[in-house]
Amino acid sequence: MKKNSLNPYIPYDKSLREMARKLRSNLTPAEIKFWTTLRIMPFYKQYYFNRQKPLGGFIVDFYCHSLRLVIEIDGDTHSTDSAESYDQKRTRWLEDQGLQVIRFLNHDVLNEINGVMETLERIIEKILAEESPQPPSLRQAQDRLRRGS
């Protein structure tokens, strides 16, 4: 299913609002570093990002509605079998909503924030390139001329 054909509104469990507020007030050190660095990036002025955003029955770390992009910052607790299974379920549901999910490790955010932001910038550029219509290929143009359209 194409992203653009999906309903832009993603329903969420209203009971998660209070928990999301609490999480926004208690960000991890990696989430704080990511958020403060994100806010000074040149692309930040063009795209609005939410912190600790309820989507469906989940709360995602960061979300950009206009890019349909979810960003998760994973700590040590995400390496257990049950956490990995839960993350896979979450990711599957989010992707079924037409969202792209990317993950960064706490270690990378805390120690390699420039590389993390470069990766994020490349992902945003890729999303934008996929959304913008590409000029027809030479073969497509020749086919149209032959058909007279």
Count of helical segments?
6
Query: Beta-strand level of the residues, as a percent range?
Result: 15-25%
Instruction: Give start-end ranges of low-pLDDT stretches.
Output: 1-6
Radius of gyration: 18 Å
Distance between the termini: 28 Å
Morphology call = globular
What is the CATH architecture descriptor?
A: 3-Layer(aba) Sandwich
Give the name of the CATH superfamily.
Answer: VSR Endonuclease
Topology, please?
Elements: H1 17-25, H2 29-38, E1 50-55, E2 58-64, E3 69-74, H3 81-96, E4 100-105, H4 106-111, H5 113-131, H6 138-147
Describe the protein.
This protein is α+β, with helices and mostly antiparallel strands. The protein has one domain: 3-Layer(aba) Sandwich (Endonuclease, Chain A), CATH 3.40.960. Helix content is about 45%, strand content about 15%. It contains 6 helices and 4 strands, in the order ααβββαβααα. A 4-stranded mixed β-sheet has the order 1-2-3-4, with helices on both faces. The longest helix has 19 residues. The radius of gyration is 18 Å and the shape is globular. It starts with 16 loop residues before the first helix and ends with a helix. The relative contact order is 0.14. The N terminus is likely disordered.
Which keywords apply here?
disordered N terminus, 4 strands, alpha+beta, single chain, 6 helices, Endonuclease, Chain A, 47% helix, 4-stranded mixed beta sheet, 149 residues
Summarize the structure.
By secondary structure, the chain is of the alpha+beta class. The chain has helices at 17-25, 29-38, 81-96, 106-111, 113-131, 138-147, and strands at 50-55, 58-64, 69-74, 100-105.
